[in-house]
Design a protein that fits this description.
The structure is a single chain. The chain has two domains: 30 residues; 320 residues, Rossmann fold. Helices cover 36% and strands 14% of the residues. Helix 3 crosses helix 4 and helix 5 packs antiparallel against helix 8. It has twelve helices and ten strands. With 357 residues, it is α/β, with parallel strands linked by helices.
Length: 357
């Protein structure tokens, strides 16, 4: 009987390995980027992927940062759904990053096998900005962040990145977390299910070929308006952009949900308090059906800003767009490249210093 079970387990392992090999091959992205490995002060190696401007026109490079459970491929996706490529064609030097635990980043040999939101703020961001500035020959960067990728920049703007941001674009970044009632329980469940300090969302790659063919679980609808993403896009996303979620980050998000906060793990720093002092040009983008950063909380966040140049843009049918925009589809929606991307380009063109001839 043991032999039968062993054969079954070996067969299942072989099927999973073949499935993963097929997904990796069939859904591979053609990136062709320069990889910059960046050491952090606490021993991690994070990564910036450089896409040079087709013709560089602007003084400051653009750092594009993914959100929770994603990696740099979200900003360097496929075809027209590639924000970094779009901005490079507009004349911006672009660097899409992998925060600790995502993509090609590496932990120290001895660990640790956990991380917090504060670790991104205190270690990852200053290391990445220093490295990008050294590579590009500048003292500041433009930061474009989706979801948590915008939150980390906002949190760092008054501390580790003070005076380092020439401009900021946040996309679906919920400074006020007022999530659907089921979400706190799901966050807690993911934290409790963490192994070696993380909930490994990359395991979703095994089901990539099924996306768009079957009815998705309800949780998927909170991460994007799937009607605004074609099935092929959904399959490539699941195969490429997911990354583990750190137990420490999930614990911190639980605290924010329970207490209506946006603060450090030990409670000593209220990250919202620094926002009124942030003076760099800031563009805030939100979607009309974004369950993670709904319009009312996006406006509430925008109202905290006092920067001389600040702009709020919401995307959805009521604003003249082709579809209602959710969370992830603000970057990879079917028409994001003709509706969302040009707004970002226009804002940056107007507010980022041009190179002199």
């Amino acid at each position: 009987m043991r032999g039968v079970w062993l054969i079954i387990l070996l067969g299942a392992a072989l099927i999973l390995a073949l499935d993963l090999a097929f997904v990796s091959w069939w859904y591979a992205l053609d990136e062709g980027l320069v990889r910059l490995e960046v050491p952090t002060a606490d021993g991690w190696t994070v990564v910036a992927w450089h896409r040079p401007a087709v013709t560089r026109r602007y003084a400051f490079p653009v750092v594009l940062c993914h959100g929770l459970a994603n990696n740099h491929s979200f900003m360097e996706f496929r075809g027209d759904q590639n924000l970094a490529k779009f901005l490079s064609e507009a004349g911006f030097d672009c660097y899409s990053v992998d925060l600790r635990g995502a993509g090609a980043s590496r932990a120290p040999d001895e660990g640790p096998w956990d991380a917090s939101f504060d670790d991104h703020v205190n270690f990852d961001l200053p290391a990445l900005v220093d490295a990008v500035c050294a590579h590009a020959g500048t003292k500041q960067v433009v930061w474009v962040g989706h979801s948590l990728g915008g939150l980390v920049a906002l949190a760092a703007s008054s501390s580790t990145l003070k005076d380092r941001l020439a401009a900021l674009v946040t996309i679906g970044s919920p400074v006020f977390l007022k999530l659907p009632t089921r979400m706190p329980g799901l966050v807690r469940l993911a934290r409790m299910a963490s192994v070696w300090g993380q909930f490994d969302a990359t395991l979703l790659r095994f089901i990539a070929p099924l996306a768009g063919w079957t009815r998705p679980p309800s949780i998927a609808r909170t991460t994007a308006n799937l009607r605004n993403m074609d099935p092929v896009t959904q399959r490539f996303l699941i195969a490429n952009v997911f990354a583990p979620m750190w137990k420490g980050v999930l614990r911190q998000i639980e605290d924010w949900l329970r207490n209506g906060a946006f603060r450090s793990m030990d409670g000593s720093r209220d990250y919202r308090e620094g926002l009124p002092a942030f003076t760099a040009p800031t563009l805030v983008i939100g979607g009309t059906v974004d369950f993670l950063a709904p319009p009312d909380t996006t406006r509430e966040y925008f109202d905290l800003l006092t920067a001389p140049v600040r702009q709020l843009e919401l995307f959805g049918r009521s604003y003249g767009h082709s579809a209602e925009y959710g969370h992830g589809d603000l970057i990879v929606g079917m028409q994001a490249h003709v509706e969302v991307y040009p707004v970002i380009r226009t804002f940056l063109e107007a507010n980022v210093k041009r190179l002199t001839a």
